[in-house]
Structures are given as structure tokens and as C-alpha cells.
Amino acid sequence: MKPVLIIRTGRAPNAIRARHGDFPHWFRLGARLPMQQLQVVDVQAGETLPSPNAVAGALITGSAAMVTERAAWSERTAAWIRGAMDVELPLFGVCYGHQLMAHALGGRVDYLPGGREIGTHAIEKLATAASDPLASLLPESFRAHTTHEQSVLETPPGSVVLARSTRDPHQLLRYGPCALSTQFHPEFSADVMRAYIQRKRADMRREGSDPWNSYREVAATPVARGFLQRFARHHGLSHGARNR
Length: 244
Hints:
Blueprint: E1 4-8, H1 14-20, H2 23-31, E2 38-42, E3 57-60, H3 72-86, E4 91-94, H4 96-104, E5 108-111, E6 117-125, E7 141-148, E8 150-154, E9 160-164, E10 172-176, E11 179-182, H5 190-199, H6 201-206, H7 211-216, H8 222-234
Parallel strand pairs: 1-2, 1-3, 3-4, 4-11
Antiparallel strand pairs: 5-8, 6-7, 6-9, 9-10, 10-11
């Protein structure tokens, strides 16, 4: 039985991690993966990724780093993503993982015009999702948690944009039959979202937004969370990793 890989590209801030746990824990709960099924590789710390053929699928986390920094560990992970695409490994990237997948496959990442997007926001499903095996099951609009400064500004050739928000036109991308990514955070709980808003409240005020209003508008996001679970089930990751 092959493990499900969590590619750790960063860590939650210390105060948030102490109270709510860290990225691998959130992804494990969000995708409903058993602990014994997981392999976590911290690429930011320099750990080496296994061959794509040695794992059943991979989830790529968020990070406080920026894709535009082109750090050596990030570029190595981008190369690994291209290899994983060649063997049609199930891939799901979130936030930094979303941007890194787009960058790896020929898109362009940079700062989101108008400043950061943070809080619980409405995500609009696009008409392109109608034929998608997973996105077609989403409602026309659903809530999701977001916190990011950079974004996918130009999508890779051949990718399909499946959903958008008011601020970001590329909230959900499909790159191939087994590869998706979201700018929004399906692994976040409402408590984690509130903790990020509290942490970023000074930055939000400086940028002209109201952190208290964003805090009050935080709500549960069962559809977004369910999308991560659906991906795991669809690719046989949440009921024991299949052999590939």
C-alpha cells in the first residue's frame, strides 16, 4: 500500500500552531486520511521528495514563503510536480501549493492586485465546471476561507479555471485528469481563519480593510472542506491508498 504524501511547504505561525495544530494535521482531518497512511515531507526544510511512483497521491500545503522568491527548495518541488504530472499522480495544491503548481506548469504568479485577500468569501463556480467530474458537483456559490498576498495571475497552458472570487479570478484550477488546485483553504476551520485574521489585523488596517468586519463574517465552509474530501475519495486516497 502506497502512502499519501503531504508536501509541507511551510509552517503555521507559532501561536496558531500551538493552539490549532499545523498544516499536515489540518490536511489529514480535511481529507479524512488515517495517520498511518501519510508520509509528510518538509521540502522547505530541505527534505527529499520520494519518486511520484512511490506514493498514491500528494497534497501540497500553503506557506508564508512567496513563489516569486524562486527558492531552491521551491524550484525543486516545481520540478517534482512536473514529473508527477507525467505519471498522472493525483495532486491537490492549496494556496502556495496552488501557485506553485501553476508556476511549475507554465503559469505566472505575482502579487494580487489591490492587496491581500483574507477572510471567508463567496466562491463562484464557473460554467467551465459543468463537465468537471468534481467541480460540477459544487453549488453555484459557496463560502471558503482565504488568506494570500500572491496569486496566479496567468494560468498555465491547457489548464481550466473552474471557480473565482470577487478579488481573484483563479480560485480553482484543473491541470489534468488527476490534478487540481485551490487558492482558497479547504483545510481551514473557522477557528483557524479567525486566528489568521487576528494575526494579520495590523496589516489589514494598513491596507485599508476592516479586520473586525472580516472576523465577524467568518463562517463554516462545509462545501469547500467537502471538496478536499471528495478529491481524496475520487482518487482512492481516503479509503486506503491504491497501487499505481
